[in-house]
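User: Second chain of the day. Same drill as before.
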Amino acid sequence: MEKSPITGIGAELALRENRATLQGRATVGGGSLTAQGTGALTNFREPAGSTFNLQARAANVRLDIPDYFAGELNASVAVERGSAATPLVSGEVVRRKRSHPAQYVCQPKTQRQRTSGFAESRL
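Assistant: Same format as last time:
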């Protein structure tokens, strides 16, 4: 269970024809989290053909998730799905002068492989 306070949650969703635009923000563990994205559904009968992009940024976000992660994060992550079926994830997650790929941050501590510190990691 997450132990960091999440406050100031706000979001705006705009719908027009087959497109949706989302902007969101929150304060997490004393830092800021923002997200924005768009999506389009061209055919309601074939939702697999939809496209979307989402960008999220975290600045000085302190997290305490027992068994997974505790520390302060700065991050810039994007998820995009164009005409291809597989979404593309890119960006970086930085934990105090040490970076980890998103896969590392999301794994339970017991499943992580030890890695040496490094200044930057790109997904």
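The radius of gyration is 17 Å.

User: Great, on to the next one.
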